[in-house]
Amino acid sequence: MASxxxxxxxxxxxxxxFTAQPGTPFHGVVMDWVERGLVRRWTDTLAVAxxxxxxxxxxxxxxxAAPGGLRGLVVDLARGIDVEQAITVRHVAPxxxxxxxxxxxxxxxxxxxxxxxxDGRPPLDAVLDTVWSPSIAVVLEWETRNWDPFxxxxxxxxxxxxxxxxxxxxxxxxxxxxxxxxxxxSAREHLDDxxxxxxxxxxxxxxxxxxxxAPTRTFAHRWTFARPTTQHPEPFYWGDGIGVCxxxxxxxxxxGTAWASGDALGxxxxxxxxxx
Length: 276
Ligand SMILES: Cc1cc2nc3c(=O)[nH]c(=O)nc-3n(C[C@H](O)[C@H](O)[C@H](O)COP(=O)(O)OP(=O)(O)OC[C@H]3O[C@@H](n4cnc5c(N)ncnc54)[C@H](O)[C@@H]3O)c2cc1C
Fold this sequence. Notes:
The protein is α+β, with helices and mostly antiparallel strands.
């Protein structure tokens, strides 16, 4: 849920949107966000494109978006909690992070990032075995909106682009900004130099939308661990004072899965600490 200020405007460069299954605790959180204007019901219909353009659409659950950017929702969840930011943790052991003692240490991040902090610590090191694929987010900005409404599109059989979304439409300010996420193949080709993904991605989005003009401003962001290709069936890991949670813990990688995983782990830690 990453929002970056690019040329003075907030752009969502991670998750494109999220869903919430009615009846779940996460749905309750989302309805509260909707009531407070932090979240809007965006659409239930997305475009389906082939390599040469958009030919179809698919209808599914409501996709929610955030007018102020998805990052603001994480800030809202963290309200009232003492959070220290911009610190890279280097080493974690039971009840210890970078030499400081804590009641519990939680690694809420992709498995490959969590493993780096554990120095091969069994049994957890072996548990964190999910494999993640990369993507590069490419932000494309034009002076004016010059495309037919499409919300967001899944792309089949294009070598460069997996999905792309209308950021002005989902955020509600109608800015002429599209965010594309590259295929795994294109991301691997450009992992060392994400900016090199801008040109082929831009050409692909222009082709898909039938746009003659190139964007006037662009930006690229590398997601080395964008999506897990396998899932842990359990909702989280907890043992020996270390917890692990995130979107790879549960049925399907998504914002809702990450929230449910963290919520369940938080509950388990609260019970464990209360007993202790
Ligand atoms: C390109 C992309 C598109 C996506 N599209 C969608 C979508 O459309 N819908 C949807 O539902 N989901 C989508 N997702 C998935 C969604 O974003 C994730 O499920 C969700 O953000 C996971 O949240 P998390 O808190 O578990 O982990 P993350 O959001 O990965 O957060 C982990 C945090 O840990 C921090 N961290 C890692 N290592 C360290 C360290 N050593 N020290 C300190 N901090 C550290 C990272 O900086 C990061 O802030 C997408 C993800 C990506 C990358």
